[in-house]
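Reproducibility note. Readers wishing to regenerate the assembly model reported in the main text can use the exact inputs given here. Chain order matters: entities are listed in the order in which they were concatenated for prediction.
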Amino acid sequence: MDIANAFALLSNFVIVPAIAYGAQLALGALGVTIIFGILRFANFAHGELMSFGAMAAILATWFLQASGVSIDPLPTALLALPVGILAAIAMALLTDRFVFRFYRRKRSNPIVFAIVSVGVMFLLAGLIRIIIGPDDQSFSDGARFLFTVRDFKKATGLEQGIGVKQTQLITVVVALVVVAALFWFLQKTRWGKAMRAYSDDEDLALLSGINPEKIVTIAWVISAALAAIAGTLYGLDKTYKPFIFLQILLPIFAATILGGIGQPVGAVLGGFIVAFSEVTVTYAFKRFLAYLGPQDWAPEGLVQLLSTDYKFAVSFVILVAVLLVRPTGIIRGKVI
Amino acid sequence: MTKKVPLYYGAMGLILIAVGIFQSWTVAFGILNLCLISAIMALGVNMQWGYAGLFNVGIMGFTALGGLAAVLVSMAPVQEAWSAAGGDLFLSLLCLAGTIAAILYARRTVSPALKRYVTLALLVAGYFLISHFFIPATERIEAIDPALSGYLGGLGLPVILAWPIGGLVAAGAGWLIGKISLGLRADYLAIATLGISEIIIAVIKYEEWLSRGVKNVTGIPRPVPYEVDLVETDWFLSAVSSLGLSDPSAAAGVFVKICYALLFIAVLAVIMWLAERALQSPWGRMMRAIRDNRDAAAAMGKDVKARHLQVFVLGCAVCGVAGAMLATLDGQLTPTSYIPLRYTFLIWVMVILGGSGNNWGAVLGGFVIWFLWIQAEPLGAWFMTVITMPLPEESGLAQHLMAGSVYMRYLLMGAILLLVMRFAPKGLIPER
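Running the prediction on these inputs yields the following structure tokens for the assembly.
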């Protein structure tokens, strides 16, 4: 029995990466859920919006790096993040003004909105690939590790170490700050309350004199800002690949639906559940169990539920299962 | 039938002929073949969306299943793999059947309160039982000469058979998927089908014993002659010289493409005829009634869910046929090439541009959009050349923009979709 080593191993390969990934998913899912709560449609362009914000942040990062601005040991991308946020907000408001507003006035049904958002997705995908190209971009600088596996081993004397990348910590901290700010906004401010009222009962909210256009604008601003932050953090933590964002859209939808559509708390919960499922289902527990068992004993096989190839597929399975078993999600969301 | 239909089709034909004259006939027939396949896919989506209003965003998965069927029907079987692991595979199949039977039986007999837990327990038990036989078997299969085979191979039958079989496979998957997800509201159905199609691709990509996965299957046998054989046959050479063509190998390439085109036109004609007949029959009227007013149709005694499932399966089958044809035309199955933008959303643009609910529109949309998708690259390059004119030859920006011109096609498709949805939501050929 060697609980400390077992835990260290699990932390390094499962818990730490899953928390970082979960934070990114949670930010993305919050953006989707807010648009769903206010405009009542599934925004297929959200992944590309994340990509767009991240792209703007990367361009700004390169500009800062070229001008010699640095906040070492923190990555320059943090300084550039506001640029990404503004770009994503501008793009979201533009698409709303020229695309979605027309259908809102016509009171089109949600499918029409979804199809139109596919058009926006195509446009953004093309734009991003023309501006930054289809290749992977790496833009993180500053210190790589908060502490490495080796540091940890030295400090504790354990066989197994935990390494925490700086980007992972930044992801979690930024996510915490953003989520806290969002919840404060929704619970305490006048506009936040107006948004919740509008989401719960549109007619009643309109009767109370809430201006729907303003609500929609705020929803887009928040959603786009969250998208840009999530996209940039995801790019910092892994690398920025333009085509990955259509793939990450599904885990985000999974998190949104799992938490309950239109429920911010649910979106955060869902993000972490999806991330942990993806990582644990595809992790081989052999060494972990070997530490917990008696001396010199190891289980046969890898003790892995699914091969690592299926990492992304796990979230799709969760998505489909939730839709079938409990489509309202953990925290009862919008009625289907 | 309005006057517009022959006009549009005539214009499309003329454009393809113009491509033949100005670019080359190889290009023209190459585009034509994929236009035909796209048109079939668009017909499939049009059945689901145009007849019944089902928002299926999982077309890619059904297309890929059709492609898989092409491999499993036409490739030669790998005997060693069958002898090495056939027994264990059969056992795991039995376990799978047993698990499903046990779950179905348990769900009938167990009290409702325990239903979910019993199902879950049986699922987990079944999973471990199946993997006990299945994983070693697949490892043995994948170990056999991985550079050349490493999979079970197919049945070694003529590849044309794969087309209807691809349709059947996709229909089976469609039935299963429709059964579990058609109760969802439209946009949830979209998300669910998108997820399911990604799962299908993941399985084809990583189950190497079945499809060779990312190692790809190449050399799927052709239903038409090979160019190398053609240039050695006497009748072909004499035909070429009597037509006054100088280059027999180029002529052979075009001839092969024409053969494919004829086959595809035959398939398209059959599907089109059936689709039109269905649409004009009482069944078609009923489908439109359900689409336009679900509650009224249900009150009239129409079984809405069953009809939706029916039309969903039909649409999936058509997409499966198209997928098998596509793999046949390419002569290979490359799972990594299946991306939603190209195999799902592009087909949607075709249907919406052509006119939802109108089969002639869907076919026309398939032609127009595929043509633009292919020609957007030279168009984009030309456009970029024009806007980078003022820049010097070696400027980084100009070169970057030229490299990005390939992706003009995404912009173009997005623009088409948005403009059609906004200004002509009924499409080029509206529903009658």
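We highlight two features of this model. Chain B has a mean pLDDT of 90. Chain B touches chain A through 48 residues (CB under 8 Å).
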